[in-house]
Amino acid sequence: MENQLGECSICNLRGLLSKIRVHMKEEHLIKDTIETVETEENSIEFEPVADDCIRWAPHEVLLLIRLVEENLDKFNAKIKKNVWIIIAEKISSITKKKFTHEQVDNKWKGMKKTYKRIKDENNRSGNSPVKWEFFNAMDSFMRKRPEITPIATCDTKEGLQLKQTMDENMQVTTQNTDDNGSSSFFLKRKRRNNEVQKRHYEKMARFDQFLKLYKQSLKLKAKKQ
């Protein structure tokens, strides 16, 4: 029983049965009775009884990740509810399954906790890497977020100092200026804007590709039925 494997039905995290039980109570706040079902791989899949929980299919989770990435800049606003409403409506429209903004928000909070915990665990030397099917999809853009990778600073003058503000990034030193005065500043700003635009196009291309594959999978599923 101690070595029995389990799978979280909320975020699909796999591990020892005892650890998955703790994970579901701490990360997803599921304290009600949990049913266990034996799977073909001899692992345990949990079915929460709580009414406010919704079962997410893997493709729905990936869709959520891509939509969060697409709207990442909008989360800088003080009121994030409107962003979750947009994402919930988009997921509902694509999957033909009703999702509320509360469900989507809670799902992402749980996934972010799981992602950060796994990342911290894998960064510790001597530990066997913890596998999670959504880790790479989230890590592709979450690893650079300040809440995931804190900015390193040092108080000593000769120490490491990586913390930089946007003002420092935009600052132009007198050595880089030319006869036209502020031309160097505008060149740097233009280059930076081009890089931001390029990343945006790449992100949208990945999302379009995901939607294309998702629609193809739905057509194949419909033909089989």
From TrEMBL:
InterPro entries in UniProt: Myb_DNA-bind_4
Alphabetized Gene3D superfamilies for the sequence: Homeodomain-like
Region described as Disordered: spans on this chain: 173-192
All residue ranges annotated as the Myb/SANT-like DNA-binding domain in the record: 55-140
Pfam families linked: Myb_DNA-bind_4
Record field: compositional bias (Polar residues): 173-185
UniProt cross-references to SMART domains, sorted A to Z: MADF
The protein, known as: Myb/SANT-like DNA-binding domain-containing protein
Species name: Hypothenemus hampei (Coffee berry borer)
